[in-house]
Design a protein that fits this description.
- The complex is a heterodimer of chains A (about 200) and B (about 150).
- Chain A has about 200 residues and is of the alpha+beta class.
- Chain A has helices spanning about 1-10, 15-20, 50-55, 85-90, 100-105, 130, 135-140, 145, 175-180, and strands at about 40, 60-65, 70-75, 95, 110-120, 155-160, 160-165, 185-195.
- Chain A contains nine helices and eight strands.
- Chain A is elongated.
- Chain A starts with a helix and ends in a 6-residue tail after the last strand.
- The relative contact order of chain A is 0.15.
- Chain B has six helices and five strands, in the order αβαββαβαβαα.
- Chain B has helices at about 1-15, 30-40, 70-80, 95, 130-145, 145-150, and strands at about 15-25, 50, 60-65, 85-90, 120.
- Classes of the chains: A alpha+beta (about 200), B alpha/beta (about 150).
């Protein structure tokens, strides 16, 4: 009998009734530290495209040119919220959760470089890659006329009937050479390395 | 009289949303997030949402995954089995865009919108259980409230 009274009293407690009838947990709030879709911090984008290059999801981010300047745009239906674009951006244009705080605290960054590779068995020595390369043309404007270059400063040039890579570190990863190669002989690979302690370049 | 009946139906339906889910070729990430909704941490039933395996008992269909060719006709069959009023919600990036599977040479054929009408989509890879819950809770009243009056 005492136990029944106990239960009845327990179930008639306003606190118990309120908990029983209403929603028990309130999980519909996202914690502030959660990684969301990257948003803009308002800092100026220099259009280096590091965010686009590192993004593993196709079509998730595009750096668009607007009236005010360049601006990265995130497409939520494609973005997987990995936060790599936020980490890769050298200018802190993007932010998401606590990623920027953590990278600053740990002094981490991504260093990237480009690796150019020419497959000699496929290359037919047309020189399209050397001529189309925008960096090459900037360094040596004469290049477009002859296909070869007298300058030692170009990224690549045709030497003795072969494409020679002279300065791969000047490559910006635009892949113009890849698209202009008729035989798919030239490949541009982006190498990304996580670094800690001020070694990062871009 | 009709209005009172409709009010009762609205009141009951707001606390009795029946959900069924179908995985049309996902990586299992979104399935786990839907599972988390059922678990005590999020406890989907406290909001009056109940999960069924049978589409004939469901009002809301949660579609997970980028669509593989085997699912194209079966997904439509499942959608047709759900009684009116019904609504489909795309969970995760895959049914919206194909996410990381939307590459050249991939065998998947997203988006799900091409096969069944989608009322709401929850982007994310995977979406959080909170996002899934709030999507269901926000889309259900839009579709089910005053359904009979709207139909006339």
């Amino acid at each position: 009998m005492r136990s029944i009274v106990y239960y009845v009293r327990e179930f008639l407690r306003p606190e118990w009734l309120r908990k029983f009838v209403s929603v028990k947990t309130a999980p519909l709030k996202t914690p502030s530290y959660s990684k969301g879709y990257p948003s803009l911090t308002g800092r100026e984008c220099t259009a280096c495209f590091s965010c686009m290059m590192i993004c593993p999801a196709p079509g998730a981010i595009a750096v668009l040119q607007r009236k005010e300047g360049w601006e990265p745009e995130i497409y939520p239906g494609h973005c997987i919220r990995c936060g790599l674009c936020v980490e890769a951006c050298p200018e802190d244009v993007l932010t998401s959760g606590r990623i920027l705080d953590v990278t600053r605290r740990d002094n981490t960054a991504f260093a990237s470089s480009y690796h150019l590779e020419v497959d000699d068995s496929l290359c037919m020595r047309c020189g399209n890659c050397c001529v189309s390369c925008p960096v090459n043309r900037q360094i040596d404007p004469q290049l477009a006329g002859s296909g070869t270059s007298a300058s030692d400063e170009v990224i690549m040039r045709v030497e003795g009937g072969r494409v020679r890579i002279l300065h791969p570190e000047k490559c910006t990863g635009c892949k113009t050479c890849e698209t202009h190669c008729p035989n798919r002989a030239i490949r541009v690979a982006r190498l990304v390395e996580g670094v800690q302690g001020g070694e990062a370049e871009a | 009289m009709r209005n009172i009946l409709q009010e009762i139906k609205n009141a009951v339906r707001s606390r009795s949303i029946h959900v069924s889910y179908v995985d049309v070729g996902s990586c299992n990430g979104c399935d786990i997030e839907v599972l988390a909704c059922l678990a005590p941490r999020y406890d989907i039933e406290q909001y009056g949402i109940y999960v069924h395996n049978n589409p004939r008992e469901a009002d809301v269909l949660l579609v997970i995954g980028s669509v593989t060719p085997q699912w194209v006709d079966k997904l439509r069959d499942i959608w047709e089995k759900i009684p009116e009023p019904k609504v489909a919600v795309a969970i995760g990036n895959c049914p919206i865009s194909g996410c990381v599977y939307a590459r050249k040479g991939s065998l998947t054929t997203p988006p799900v919108e091409n096969y069944i009408p989608i009322a709401a989509s929850v982007p994310g890879c995977p979406p959080r259980p909170t996002e899934i819950l709030s999507a269901i809770l926000s889309v259900a009243p839009l579709i089910f409230k005053d359904y009979e009056e709207k139909k006339q």
